[in-house]
Amino acid sequence: MTTVAPRLTPRLTRRGQAFVGTGLGLGGASALLGFPDLTRVGVLLLLLPVLAYLTSWRRAPRLAVTRTVSPAALRPDEPGQVRTEVRNEGRRTSLSHLAQERLDPTLGGPARFVVPALAPGRRHTVAYPVRGRARGVHHVGPLDLRQEDPFGLTLQRRRLGGAAEVLVLPEVVDLTGLAPPGTGVTGPGPVPHLVAVHGEDDVSTRRYARGDDLRRVHWPATAHRAELMVRQEERPARQRATLVLDPRRAAHRGTGPASSFEWAVSALASVAALLAGQGFQLHLVTAETARDAAVDRPLGREAVLRHLALAGTAEGDLSDIVHATWSVAGGLVVAAVADAAVADADGAALDRLAAARPPGTTGVLLLLDAATFAGAPPSPGAAGRAHRLRAAGWRSTVVRAGQPVADAWATACYDDAWAVAR
Prior knowledge:
Number of strands: 18
Structural class: alpha/beta
Strand content: 25-35%
Number of helices: 11
């Protein structure tokens, strides 16, 4: 990113103002009282800041700045580097400047350095470290420049506007060895049958099974066999998984990295890394992807992490999330949802999401007892709501503050009784 500093009018420092005031007072008083030597001293005190002011005005430089951040995306607590290049795009040699690069507090303290005198067309490059401590987009810049004359009588401040962005990805917990349920890798259950969706070609038919989508009925084969037949495809090279993030601001509790929303983001990021490593095609349902109608776009691991890095809470209920989940869900659905009782006493939002698991898919729902993330005691009704989810066909566990993501995932996926974590 390149920005050019405007030519700003210099101003007198306090020292310069004191020189002007003293020169006027001393010169005027000595002239009235007939002390020519003191008058000359007063005139000299007055001329020094005036000359410094005129010199600073003439030599005002035209500077441009370019920033490069590497790597482009940081892991939590991973160090990165910002290279700031300042160029003189004016026709005169610039004076030296004291520079300060503004940073988001989560990236570290402000970077201070000296920009030396630059001839026209010359450049000066400085590199300094940053560290991503919180998920999201953080800004580097603008660059503040400070220039004083040798006597400290005048001061020029410039701000080279614009800023570079540093993307910090969500925390990813290692779930290696914890295969998702129903995939037939290491977890229990058969490999789920996948039918063609979103324009994929059908290559065969099979007998209708309870729960099959009636829209998949193959009528010519049904007429020929005198029994219901549905379209089927060969197992695709990549299975499908849909990750659902509950964005309801009213449902989540806690602040900062210890909040229930940040736990949910980290959990889905960890599951995305696990599933991508096992060859799954990922779809992400968040407030942002639902709003932008981007949930049907297949994503890779890095793309999911980037979307989750930008995910935020929103007002409203789960209606848009449920609708988006229905539009893409297939194979495996993983949802991280705040306890519905926090947002609505009758749990209607949770029931709507529970019904969003299409027949024939495997669902894993991490039910966050959000009150515990704000220091409150566990919700007495969370266990009952988890039982309702299991009755609706989901594998579910209650997550409370402090519980590791790996433990919650293992409990939800592999406990034969689908027990609720206590």
